Amino acid sequence: MNALHIAGHVVDIPGRRTFPAVVSMEEGKITAVKPATAPVPARFILPGFIDAHVHVESSMLVPSEFARMAVVHGTVGSVSDPHEIANVCGEKGVEFMLDNGRQVPFRFCFGAPSCVPATVFETAGDAIDAAGVDRLLQRPDIYYLSEMMNFPGVLHHDPEVMQKIAAAKKYGKPVDGHAPGLRGNLAAQYAAAGISTDHECFTLEEALDKLAAGMHILIREGSAARNFEALEPLISTHPQRVMFCSDDKHPDNLEEGHINLLVKRALAKGHDLYNILQAACINPVVHYNIPAGLLRVGDHADFIIADNLSDFNILETWIGGRQVALEGETLISAVPVTPINRFHCTAKPVTDFHIPAPADTCNVKVIEALDGQLITQPLTFQLTAQNGLLNSDVAQDVLKITVVNRYEDAPPACAFIHRFGLRSGAIASTVAHDSHNIIAVGVDDESIRRAVNALIGAEGGICVIDGEKEYILPLPVAGLMSAGDGYDTALRYSQLDKAAKALGSKLDAPFMTLSFMALLVIPRLKLSDRGLFDGDNFSFTELVQA
Fold first, then answer.
1. pLDDT tens per residue across span 491-501
2. CB-based contact 13:239 (threshold 8 Å)
3. 144 with 68, same domain?
């Protein structure tokens, strides 16, 4: 391979300087970074961005398509937890992500899922026990133990949990955390077990407690969960201990931007350029030992070229000495996908979604969905029975929500939710963290039935029912991901998002919010396929109050 030479202003993040230079590369590696002896173009060369925590599956794209879209925004790698597909297909799902990801030039840093299933209170498609985690962590292409969501298990020294953490320590690989709301001594105990990061901080005070305990804090801006505004002061106070991540990012949002958007926001807040880039480019590579280049001699030739250092318009992205994006266009070719899946339930009758009323008027526990948050609040509403049944009350914005086991035929679980805002119809999805059963919300049982059965017929996807109209985006890969082009998937998802909002939803991302209403490890009131779940007491609870 012939040597390549690129001139511009090199951004030396550790040295906190920017200087005119010529970057030389050969056979995919940086061979020299020399100060320029002649004028250089008005462009800036710097290490690429890393998403420090993301579930690629939540983009509804396979890894290769995620990479094709992400590189346009200057992302060269991601710390990717494949526990979504693992909850459906187990270790075979992880293998699928690894195989697909290695077919494109992108620094995928996959982890070994630590909580499959996430809890014992739901039905998942598969499980990965401590022995399975150990097998995965032995692999050189598995870089860390993925987020340990079972923080009660850590605090109470659950044997299975502690075996998984011990395996990561044995192989010298970091352990990711997930402990929303944990403060003080409890945060310190959690960190002392070997947990090195957290991306679930709600407040600055919580983040400071975890930093004091020795953890790294991830500032998250995804399609639903966002904590940038709460945590951005850490960029200045703890630049060596923070990273940027998206966690969950739907395809239309990925088309708009990625980690580059966080960089721009941090600059707009007045943070120091080098502190920002330390979080966006350097810290994830160092913490996870990602084989991504940092613009040093001998490194992989992974870097980006921007036209300025204020709005970071990405001109070019290079990975392994190969140009993978140019002026907003991906240069990575699509790769063929052979879907894997697990789907074993049959169509449901409308009576499966009926909720018998024990009295003419009932006080009902209701999930309050919060826009832009994974947490929910428990509320109480009074519902009046109709023909002996409890139904959605559109006037109060109290809608029926259901979770249907997709791995075997079983009665659906039904409850009620507030703030979804639908005035008609229903929406449904097989992206339902973490077990990915079918989840649906609607204003009447018939619309809910049609939405659920549409997804059963497709064996996965997202769906909108609007009167006689039915819109569906099939997701044949584990019921989570499209097998097609990422940009086409983004367009089709955007169309369904608009259709959901046309039903009346005011949520910024209705499908993303819906997908978290079955996530039992995030407080406070959620719904699994087995029933209404109280996240405060970590136990099932009754729908109708006495």
1. 999 999 999 99
2. no
3. yes
Q: For the residues of 407-462, what is the DSSP string, one character each?
A: SS--PPEEEEEES---SSSEEEES--TTTT-EEEEESSHHHHHHHHHHHHHHTSEE
Cβ-contact 89, 436 below 8 angstroms? no
Distance of alpha carbon 87 from alpha carbon 531, whole angstroms: 19
Share of the chain above pLDDT 70, in %: 99
Q: Which helix H or strand E contains 111, and what residues bound it?
A: strand 107-112
One-letter-per-residue 3-state SS of 61-110: ECHHHHHHHHHHHCEEEEEECCHHHHHHHHHHHHHHHHHHHCCCCCEEEE
Q: Is residue 8 part of a domain?
A: no
- Please list, residue by residue across 518-546, b when 16 or more beta carbons sit within 10 angstroms of its beta carbon and e when fewer do: bbbbbbbbbbbbbbbbbbeeeeebebeee
Choose the final residue of a domain: 250, 273, 291.
291
Query: Does 229 share its domain with 362?
Result: no
Domain of 179, CATH number, reads: 3.20.20.140
Are 283 and 378 found together in one domain? no
The structural domain count of the chain equals 2
Which residue in 293, 309, 310 sits closest to 301, CA to CA?
A: 293
Helix-strand-coil split of the chain, %, nearest 5:
30, 30, 40
Does residue 281 share a domain with residue 425? Answer: no
The two three-digit tokens of residue 514, written as one number: 């819906």
**Same domain, yes or no, for 502 and 406?**
yes
* Identity of residue 406: R
Which helix (H) or strand (E) element contains residue 112?
A: strand 107-112
Q: pTM of the full predicted structure? A: 0.94
For residue 68, is it within any domain?
Answer: yes
User: Is 437 within a domain?
Assistant: yes
Please give the structure tokens belonging to residue 101. 């990801």
Report yes or no: 244 and 52 within 8 Å, Cβ to Cβ.
yes
Judge if 382 and 246 occupy the same domain: no
Are 153 and 269 in the same domain?
Answer: yes
DSSP 16: T
pLDDT in tens, 443-470: 999 999 999 999 999 999 999 999 999 9
Domain with 187 in it:
49-291
